Amino acid sequence: MSRFEAMDGNTATAEGMRQINPDVVAAYPITPQTSTVQTFSQFVADGEVDTEFIRVESEHSAMAACIGASAAGGRVMTATSANGLALMWEMVYIAASNRAPIVMTVVNRALSGPINIHCDHSDSMGTRDAGWIQLFGENPQEAYDNAIQAVRIAEHEDVLLPVMSMYDGFITSHSLERVQIEDGEAVRDFVGPFTAHDSLLDVDNPVTYGPLDFYDFYMEHKRQQVEAMKYAKRVIPEVAADFEKHFGRRYGFFDEYRLDDAELALVVLSSTAGTARSVVDSLRAQGLKVGLLKPRVFRPFPAEELADALRDKTAVGVMDRSDSFGALGGPLFVELSAALKIWGVPAKIVDYVFGLGGRDTTPAQIESVFRDLAEIAETGEIKQLVTYLGVRE
Amino acid sequence: MATALKLKELYKKEDRLTSGHRLCAGCAAPIIVRQILTAIDEPVVLSNATGCLEVSTTIYPYTAWQVPWIHTAFETAASTISGVEAMYRSLVKQGKLEERNFKFVAFGGDGGTYDIGIQALSGMLERGHRALYVCYNNEAYMNTGIQRSGATPLGAWTTTSPVGKVIPGKPRPRKDLTAIAAAHDIPYAAQASPHNWRDLMRKVRKAVAADGPSFLNVLSSCNRGWRHPTDIAIEISRLAAETCYWPLYEVEDGEWKLTYRPKKKLPIEEFLQPQGRFRHLFREENKHVLEELRAQVDRKWRQLLKRCGEEE
After folding, report:
1. CATH code of the domain covering residue B254
2. Which of A107, B55, B131, B299 has the highest Cβ tally under 10 A?
3. Looking at the predicted structure, is the pLDDT value of residue B312 above 90?
4. Domain end: A247, A282, A298, which one?
5. If we measure between CA atoms, which residue out of B232, B207, B178 comes closest to residue B31?
6. In the prediction, which pLDDT does A332 show?
7. In chain A, which residue's Cα lies nearest the Cα of B104?
8. What is the pLDDT confidence band of residue B4, given thresholds at 50, 70 and 90?
9. CA-CA distance, A305 to A302, in Å (whole number)?
10. B246 is in which domain, residue-wise?
11. For residue B113, what is the enclosing H or E element?
12. What residues in A contact B93, CB-CB < 8 Å?
């Protein structure tokens, strides 16, 4: 039977890992991910999992060990944050190109420098072209649910790609919330057994992993990764539908809140969506037709679906919790702008970079975004394409 | 029953690294790899750092490896084999895989081992994975075109320690990685050379029988980088041991033991002279470097004799 518990995001993730019972975990501690590996270490020490836990000497080795373990034909998980993800960068790409279905929790934290331990999305956004599927969760419940679904998505025969499950550092990783924890047997039943493909440990049928791949084949292999991402777009909703059947909670590419009849739409990832919902409610009470769209899947980017959801909006405000220096704006804004253009959505779109390094984001700031959108809708003019919220200019 | 270490028995074994690879003529690396893999009778799973051995044996869609093999990156031979070995233990423990006494071996050049991969190697040794790490040590970054590494000896010419008007080759001595590995208090660490194949193969057998991590540092001549004829790889290896430039020894459970002692230690010049990388050391103005190198080799040799409880 499922049960309700007060849990923070890291504990909920560790609990999900306990239930999934991966064959190997290789991880290194880093704030704010640390309590995930600490909690999981206790599960290992108490014999509650069968996992071989490799306490590696760095994140670079964590991902290298994960790739080796995955090629050896078993289920592999890990977790990291910020600089840890940056240190394993080289291996993050290699994991994807090896088609290793590794599931990695990334507790989002601002990248150095300057060094900072609090939340923004610069870490995982930096890896958006690495070939990983990326799921953003809003709260501990979504952290738990995404970790479980990630295993099924990654290991699907048509996908075989690694998956990152993200949630906001401290805001979600360390805040207690009500979480519905499912029955362990039911979770194991949902994820199913691991099916090995071309295992290194199948010594009677030896395989070579990671050969030198020149100009005569490299491009085809990259093309196959593109194809796997396309399949992932089909598989992610299939897994979500099965998850809903098992556990009753619904997931899609994104989550809409009072968006249907809205004229002004806000697009924001992760925990900030919670604050944004209450702002939507208070502005609705004042008669403003506002709504919210919270993407869950960033890779593969559901461009056409997002464009459809925003087709009849007058103005769209994107909130980016990371910047792309020298680009038009933050990564979510740039990609969404392209999607709207390509699929012929006439809405005006502007970007708000916010919350870098854990800077607090207030309801008043989100309200100011909607006020800007109202003005853009009324005048048809964009005064400022990218605005930095709550910064001393 | 293990295959006897006799040529008439060993030649019957199938090659685990086949011909057709693109390593240079006269390269010692494939000789070393075949000696090592022939010494092991059990199933093996290999991890390989980026380097000559990796690029020359696996140009897609071909592979020269008849055993499971994985390459991930330059500095990751040890961390990758850690993951493979941990998965093996996990699956066997859970009854998902039959226990067949697999042997896990990682190969890295000196660049991937002494320098960029030393952290991952140290981690593997400290965590106690049951794997053998082999450094095939050609004393420079040969794959990228002969750049100096932490294994390059004092005075040697490389493309990044060139012989110039004011600096005559590498100004610093090599580090003693075998001793560094042994300092991890692992069950087995050794130095070997392909000219003494029986000594090398015995060491491999001890290493893979150890209940824990092991390390083998094997001198691997590179005629391109050492600047010597292509047909003297084995002879130059022998001279390295006979001059005590590359002593053959092992450290078993903390006990240091010489496995070969030259009857009459040859002068260092015997090893240096055939190699173009040391040619400048024989010029009058660089004599002090040659003397410094000699003094270092002699000091390290005396230190080793003491550690091994041998008389000078």
Report:
1. 3.40.50.970
2. A107
3. no
4. A247
5. B232
6. 98
7. A201
8. very high
9. 6
10. 15-307
11. none
12. 50, 52
